[in-house]
Amino acid sequence: MSQPEIVPAGDQALKVLFENKIDRKINQRVKQLSDRISRKKITGITETIPAFRTLTVLYDTLQTDYHTLLLDIQPLLADLDETSRLRKRIIEIPVCYDETLGPDLQAVAEHAGLSVEEVIQLHSEPDYLIYMLGFLPGFAYLGEMNPIISMPRLASPRLNIPAGAVGIAGDQTGMYPMASPGGWRIIGSTPVKLFDADRESPILYEAGDYIRFRPISLNEYEDMSSQNTNAEDLYHIVKEDSFGDKDNE
Fold first, then answer.
1. pLDDT per residue over 67-82, tens digit each?
2. Which pTM does this prediction carry?
3. What domains lie within the chain, and their CATH numbers?
4. 140-143 and 13-17: which strand pairing?
């Protein structure tokens, strides 16, 4: 893979650019660099924001500057290895694929030439990498979805998609953490409150985690929703591995 490029991004940020494509290995290198920067506790850095193939680094201009940060970050680009991760966390999220909650489920099935049950099976089989969070607080862009069930966005976005909706757009899938306009094809919903500003951790996951969807019935969905249960009691972490970074052992 080619060497990442560092460029200014306004007067209080810089951006590290990796190869210009959506790729799991590239995204894991972005996340690893973010982890390295966080552990180094570099003076002046206030936040790192990983995306599909970029890492944005925000900094306090009273404590540092762009050229100083170049010298701080460039050594951390050496030997980025997509297999060297601090952890791998898989979070299981219950999803009801009933057509009352997934208005586009039948259309996705017809587009793919499959039954609704086959779409549900293909959608819930993988462990999806969270490439990035964006669009809304807690909106997780997940990949890679089985291309058999990929489908373009709606030609005219809906004005109001409810919180918890699970959708498809192209080869990606994602979850709406709050009510919002949107053009994704909605195939189900989760009773888990994905974003809550009053929680100690408002978002249940972060870029680099994995999401596993667990199909549930409509009765289960209604029971979970009506009980107003804490999100922590509805989802659970099915796997969390810790890995050392060879550059920091």
1. 999 999 999 998 776 5
2. 0.77
3. 5-77 (3.30.1360.40), 87-242 (2.40.100.10)
4. unpaired
